[in-house]
Amino acid sequence: MSKQLLKALPELLEERVISSDIAGNIQAYYRQKAESQPNRLFVIFGILGSLLVGLGIILILAHNWSHLPPVAQLILAFVPPIIGIIVCFYSLQFRNDSDAWKESSAIFLFLGVGACLAMLSQYYHLQEDVADFVFRWMLLVFPLMYIMSSGISAVLYLAGITFLGMSWGLSNDTSWPYWLMFLAALPFYLINQKKNPDTNFQRVLHYLFPLSAFLGTIGILGPISGHITFMVLMALYGCYVLIGRSSWVEKSKSERNGFIIQSSIGMTVILLISSFRDFWDDQYQVKDLIGTSLLDSPALILLFVFGMLFVLVYFFNQKDEVKDDDPIQIMVFPAYAVLFLLAPSAPMIVAILVNILLFALGIIKIREGVRLQHFGTLNYGLVILTALIACRFFDMEMSLILRGMAFVTIGIGFFAGNYVMYRRIKTQQELQHESA
Description:
mainly alpha; single chain; globular
C-alpha cells in the first residue's frame, strides 16, 4: 500500500489533489518508517547476540569451574560484570545514539551480575534459596534501566521482582518489599511512555506492569481465600480501567493497552464466578472483617490502597477531561463493592444483580464493537453473553433440548453479528472507493 501511494504522489500533485507540502510529509513519513525498521531489527539481533555470548561465557566457566584454583575462581567471578561495565561505559560515551548498543550492553551486564552472584555463592558455599539469590540480583541491576535507558532491563527486572512477589507470598514470607521494588520501576515506565511510546519494549511493559501487579497481589493474597480475595482483585481491575483510559495510556492502540484488556477479562471472570447463588450464601468473612484493624489484614490494606488509587485516578481523569466511552465498566468496581456489603442480608438478590450487570456489560461491548467496527470487541461481548448463559445451565433445571437450542441460538448470533459487521464495513469501503 505504501509503495502504491508513493508512486501515485506525482499524479496526485499534477492533478492538484494534494499540495506539495502534504506530498513532502507523506514521503518523509514513509522514509522515517523504512529507516526505523532495520534499526529495530538491529536492536533485536544485538540483544540476542548479547544473550548468546553471555550464556556461552557462563557455560564455559561452569564446565571448567571445578578444575580452577580458588584464587582463579574468585577473579573469574568478577570478569563478566567488569566486561559488562566497560561495554556499557563505551555505549554511553561513544554510542549513546544507538539503541542497539545500549540494549545489548545492558543485557550483557544484567546477565554478568547474575553470573557473578552465582559463582560467588558457589565459591563461599552459601546456602540460600532461589528467592534470596534473585532478590540480591534485582537490587544490583535495578539502576540499569535508568542509566542505560534500557527497555530490556526493565522487562527482565519486572519479571524478576514478580517472581519474588509470588515466591514470598506463597511461602508466607513478607512480600511488601516487592511493592517497593515495583514502585521503583514505575518512573521508568512513565518517562518512557512520554518519550518513546511506540517502542516494542514499551508495548511489552503495557502488559507486563499490570500483570506484575496482579501476580504480586495474588502472592500477598495467596494464604487468604474467599470473597475478600475477589473484592481486592476487583478493586485492582477498577484501577486498571481508569489507568487504561487516562490521557497518557489511551493514545496507544487498543490491542496495546494491557490495562484495559486485562481488566476486562479479569472483571468478567470475577463476575461470572459471583453470578452463582452459592457464592454469596457463605458471607461470614464480611462479618468478620467488621471491626478488624486495617494493619492486621493484608487484604484490607490492599483494598484500602487500591480504593484510594481508584478515587485519585478517577479525579485525575476528570480534571484531564478524559472522555468515558464505557461508563459501565468504570462503575463495575463500585457496584461490586456495594453488592459485596449487601450480600449477607440478601444473597439471592445480589446474585440476580450480578447477572444483570454481566448481561449489560456484554450488550455494551457488542454495541461498542458495532460502533467502532471492531470484530474483537464485538465477539468479546458475545463471549460474555455465551459464558453467562452457560453458567446458568449449572444452577437451573433445563432439559437437554432447551440447552441445545440455546447453544444453537448463540452460534447463530455469533455468525449473524460478524456477518452484519463484515457487510457494513465492506459497504462503507465501496462507498469510499466510489466517492474517491
